Amino acid sequence: MMTQKKAKMIYRTVGFSLTALCFVLSFVYRPYAYSHHLNDFHLADSYTSFFGVPIVVCLTQAYSRFRNGRWSIPKTIFCAIGLFMIWEIVDGLLAKRMDRIDIAASWISGGLMYGLYLIFGFKSVEDYQE
Question: pTM value?
C-alpha cells in the first residue's frame, strides 16, 4: 500500500521532471525549430502550456495541505486550465495578441490529464494513508 509520503515524492518527481524538460526545450528545441524553420505544428510555441497543466497538478498534489477533498485531481486540472487561460488573456491585453494555440494546448493537456486520471485511477495524495 502506498503512503502519502511516497505519493508526494512521485508527484514531486514528475512535476520537477516536466519543469526541467520545459527548460531544456526552451534552450535546445525552440532555437533549433526557429533557426531551421521547422513546421512543428506550433509545438515550439505551445509546449509550456501543454506541459503546464501536468506540472501544476503534480506540484499541487506534492505540496498542498489537504482538507476534505479541496485539491482533488479533477479540481486541480480545471483550476490549472483556468490559470493558463487567464494568463493568456492578461498577456494578450498587456503585451501582444492573445495566443489561441496556447489556450487550446492547455485544454488538450487538461483533457489528456483527465483521461489518464480516469483510465489509471490516479488518486489525490489525501486518498492515501499516512
Answer: 0.89
